[in-house]
Design goal:
Blueprint: H1 2-18, H2 39-50, H3 60-75, E1 79-88, E2 95-105, E3 111-118, H4 139-155, E4 166-172, H5 187-198, E5 204-212, E6 221-223, H6 225-230, H7 232-245, E7 250-254, H8 262-267, E8 273-277, H9 296-311
Parallel strand pairs: 3-4, 3-5, 5-8, 6-7
Antiparallel strand pairs: 1-2, 2-4
Helix pairs in contact: 2-4, 2-9, 4-9, 7-9
Length: 315
């Protein structure tokens, strides 16, 4: 009897060390399989994207970026589609070919999650006091969302999504083909949202998450006011995921009211969508929006939150 008691004590000690039993003796659930987001690899994608320089809609840089994205996700065995349309150039009126890119995981699932970013860059760094007509690289504003989804794509084959939902990554074109103050924004997301609303389909997006400007070296992501207006439960669930994963850069307070690609998704398509955006970024729309002002660690922190959230989706 004494030998059995000692044997049990040793076994429980092993379980405590392994994290499988709590100090009060109750058996804990096994740690959830959560693939790790690779900060270094994500930043490598960001740097590679920025070497293409301007990725304005219809430009050679955009075409090169489309090939980069297509090759990356095809290698990962995801389904990749182009959603193409023409939009008039704001200055010349000539048609500009736009291409939203849709990358699908588990395409057979009828209930789906939408993770989106814009992948075009603004024509010029118009807020740059010294060089407002200079080269705009858009490392954070444009590049960060693409790099994030490229790295997340590496993890998707082994990531178990809550409730068996499918996931689509959508890269919006024409978010800011803007030369003048009143030029139209959100061309790609408006087209996508209208098609989703009006065209026959056999699936439904349950939630949407927009990722924009998430690589700031000094990351601080507040709740965005329109997200709380249109998708309060979703927004709070993401910040709760940040709390549970210990990512303090997600600050559970509202601060900015942003007009972004999440508005057409909410207002036209009726998809509850949250905007994850760090709008405290001094290099915004300047020539300083380059990789040295960004961080792979910031992308990793957002990745930690999104991965946990995808594995624990609100019902």
């Amino acid at each position: 009897m004494l030998w059995r008691l000692k044997q049990t004590t040793v076994y429980l000690s092993f379980l405590i060390l392994a994290g499988m039993v709590s100090l009060n003796g109750s058996i804990a659930a096994e740690p959830e399989n959560r693939p790790e987001f690779d900060a270094k690899r994500a930043f490598g994608y960001l740097t590679k994207i920025c070497r293409l320089e301007s990725r304005m809609s219809g430009s050679p840089g955009m075409a090169a970026q489309q090939k980069l994205i297509l090759d990356h996700f095809r290698e990962l065995k995801a389904k990749v589609q182009f959603q193409s349309f023409d939009a008039p150039h704001p200055i010349t009126g000539n048609p500009v070919r736009m291409n939203n890119m849709i990358v699908s995981w588990h395409p057979e699932a009828k209930k789906r999650i939408l993770l989106a970013c814009h992948y075009d860059t603004r024509p010029f760094p118009d807020r740059d006091r010294n060089n407002p007509q200079g080269l705009f690289i858009g490392a954070n504003d444009g590049g960060s969302g693409v790099a994030f989804l490229m790295e997340l794509g590496n993890l998707m084959p082994s990531l178990k999504i809550s409730q068996g939902y499918g996931v689509d990554f959508v890269f919006f074109d024409g978010e800011e083909l803007v030369f003048r103050q009143n030029d139209p924004y959100f061309l790609g997301s408006k087209y996508f949202a209208t098609q989703y609303k009006n065209e026959p389909r056999d699936f439904e997006y349950v939630y949407g998450v927009l990722l924009d400007m998430i690589a700031d070296r000094n990351l601080g992501i507040f709740m965005e006011k329109n997200s709380l207006k249109y998708a309060p439960q979703l927004t709070r669930s993401i910040w709760e995921a940040a709390r549970k994963t210990g990512v303090r850069e997600f600050i559970p307070q509202a601060k900015f009211e942003i007009r972004d690609d999440h508005l057409p998704l909410n207002e036209i398509a009726g998809i509850p969508t949250c905007d994850i955006i760090d709008f405290d970024y001094p290099a915004w729309h300047t020539t300083r929006d380059v990789p040295r002002n960004c961080s792979g660690t910031s992308l990793e922190k957002v990745g930690t939150v999104i991965i946990y959230w995808l594995q624990n989706l609100p019902e």
